[in-house]
Design a protein that fits this description.
Length: 240
């Protein structure tokens, strides 16, 4: 059986401004399979976040095709795209996007209240506790985000994405707002989640952190310029 989760074929995205067209990504073809841990690297402005937003169905593509679990997404209406996104995609933003009025528990639970099929309160609680345990934050369930370090907030943002039980985690610059100690800890967490079977696609401009992933692609001016497999030993030694 084909275990491809996301498949891009010759995908381009153009942003149309008042009098400028920005070709953010051009003719990108890419398959992500179950169990993969892919790092998207490249300098600032090279199209990394655009590519991740396309993968997360947060941006419409201009040309090409994009399939999620074999379903071609381009012809779908907005509601059906939203359903597919809820079902398959866990998005983790660089800025965490946690709500400070809510506890950690409620932040993780919030998206679950808007899902089909509707979950019972007990099912939601189980999922939230399981996700917080996966990121080792269950002991902070009743804290507010402002009482946590940046690294802990990033863990909660990852838990919120995991609680939806997505097919893939899409993570944009997970260490971008963290010091190196917290950054290393978040990268170790992503490695451990991948070892537990979570499929991950991460954007990073930091080549050292890209080495934590199992596969890497590099963008330059919106073009995919290299694809490589990180050797298993490099993968392990980076983690140690
Ligand atoms: P990266 O994440 O690698 O820094 P981006 O995907 O954010 O790159 O940006 C790629 C190009 O697309 C840049 O030239 C950027 O200015 C442009 N861009 C990104 N988002 C938008 C947008 N919403 N509207 C117009 N241009 C955008
Ligand atoms: Mg970016």
């Amino acid at each position: 059986m084909d275990n491809t989760i996301l498949a891009l074929h010759q995908v381009s995205k153009v942003y149309y401004g008042q009098d400028v067209e920005t070709h953010a990504i051009s003719n990108i073809s890419l398959n992500i399979k179950a169990g993969d841990y892919l790092a998207i690297t490249g300098p600032s402005g090279s199209g990394k976040s655009t590519l991740l937003s396309v993968l997360g169905l947060l941006e419409e593509i201009t040309s090409g095709s994009y399939c999620i679990q074999g379903v071609e997404t381009r012809s779908l209406d907005a509601d059906t795209q939203a359903e597919l996104r809820n079902l398959h995609i866990g998005f983790v933003f660089q800025s965490f996007n946690l709500l400070d009025g809510l506890t950690v528990f409620d932040n993780v639970a919030l998206p679950l209240h808007y899902r089909e099929p509707i979950l019972t309160a007990q099912e939601i609680e189980q999922r939230v506790i399981r996700a917080l345990t996966q990121v080792e934050m269950s002991h902070r369930a009743n804290h507010k985000p402002s009482q946590l370090s940046g690294g802990q907030q990033q863990r909660v943002a990852i838990a919120r994405a995991l609680a939806g039980e997505p097919s893939i985690l899409l993570v944009d610059e997970p260490t971008g707002n963290l010091d190196s100690k917290n950054g290393d800890a978040v990268m170790a967490l992503l490695n451990s989640l991948n070892e537990q079977g979570v499929t991950i696609c991460m954007v990073t401009h930091d080549t050292r952190y890209a080495g934590y992933a199992k596969q890497q692609i590099q963008l330059l001016d919106g073009v995919l310029v290299s694809k490589s497999k990180v050797s298993h030993s490099a993968h392990l030694s980076e983690v140690m």
